[in-house]
Design goal:
CATH class: Alpha Beta
Strand content: 35-45%
Radius of gyration: 15 Å
Distance between the termini: 22 Å
Number of domains: 1
Structural class: alpha+beta
Shape: globular
Order of helices and strands: HEEHEEEE
Largest sheet: 6 strands, antiparallel
Strand order of the largest sheet: 1-2-4-5-6-3
CATH architecture: Roll
Number of strands: 6
Number of helices: 2
Helix content: 10-25%
CATH superfamily: Hotdog Thioesterase
CATH topology: Thiol Ester Dehydrase, Chain A
C-alpha cells in the first residue's frame, strides 16, 4: 500500500489536480488505487450547480495518474521525469461519479517500449464500471529548473 505521502513522492501532481488518494496494490504491471470523491472539490461548483457530477476528463486523468504511479514507481530518477498523454482510445463512460463515491482506479500495463507505454484504465464505483479507456503515454525528461 502507498499512502498520500508516498504518492506525492512519486507523482508531480499537486492540489487541486492530484486525483489519487491511496494505492491499495501495485506490482507486476498492475495497480489498484483509490480516489475519494468529495463535494468540496473545486470542479463541483460549476459541474453542475445543483446536480454535481465528476467531469469525465478528470476520471480519465485519475486513471492516468494511477497508471503513472505504476510506471514511475520503479524509475530511479523519477523526479527528473514527467509522463504525458500521447493518446486516449476506446474511452467509454458507463455511469456518473458523484460526491461521496469512492472511485476505484485500476490500471494494467498492456505494452511498454523504452519511454512509451499503453495502459488499460478502469474506474469503478461500488464494483460497477464508471469509465474505461486505453491510455497511451510517453515518459519525458522534466524541463531544466522544474522541480517538485
Amino acid at each position: 500500500m502507498i499512502d498520500i505521502q508516498g504518492i506525492l513522492d512519486i507523482l508531480p501532481h499537486r492540489y487541486p489536480f492530484l486525483l489519487v488518494d491511496r494505492v491499495l496494490e501495485v506490482g507486476d504491471g498492475h495497480i489498484l488505487a483509490l480516489k475519494n470523491v468529495t463535494f468540496n472539490e473545486p470542479h463541483f461548483t460549476g459541474h453542475f450547480p445543483g446536480a454535481p457530477v465528476m467531469p469525465g476528463v478528470l476520471i480519465v486523468e485519475a486513471m492516468a495518474q494511477a497508471g503513472g504511479i505504476m510506471l514511475l514507481k520503479e524509475v530511479p530518477d523519477r523526479g527528473s521525469k514527467l509522463v504525458y498523454f500521447s493518446a486516449i482510445n476506446e474511452c467509454r463512460f458507463r455511469r456518473p461519479v458523484l460526491p461521496g463515491d469512492q472511485l476505484m482506479l485500476e490500471a494494467t500495463l498492456v505494452r511498454r517500449r523504452q519511454n512509451f507505454a499503453v495502459v488499460k484504465g478502469v474506474a469503478r464505483v461500488d464494483g460497477e464500471i464508471a469509465a474505461e479507456a486505453m491510455l497511451s503515454c510517453a515518459m519525458v525528461d522534466r524541463p531544466q529548473g522544474d522541480t517538485q
